[in-house]
Give the backbone structure.
Amino acid sequence: MINREVDADLIALADLTAAAAAPGITEPIAALGDTAGVMTTPLPMSGVLQAADQDAQFLLTLRRNMDTGAMDLVSFRKGAYFPLSDFVSEYNFPDYQYADNRFSDGLRMFQKMLKSDEGYPDQMR
């Protein structure tokens, strides 16, 4: 579910189906911050006006560029849901040194994949 004013929420279709077959919510939530109903996963996809499956690995979105106001056509890798170029990260600095452990190896591979997705294979280390 995408709302152009706030971040998106990922909702499993099976959860929606189960909720539609169940009785509705009958009690108001008790306190601010409490939730009820179908569980969602928030995604950092603000400014998105429309989204559709691009293929098995990507969503294709039309989103408002928050800096310029222009409309951008942007692909989001499913599972990551953000383009690397949307963020400033120490992992992208040329002098960044990854630690020598399995976590850093996985992070390095993830960064390489996202850089390749955006057309920056020359910046992969």
In short: Residues 102-117 form the longest helix (16 residues). Residues 83-125 form one domain.
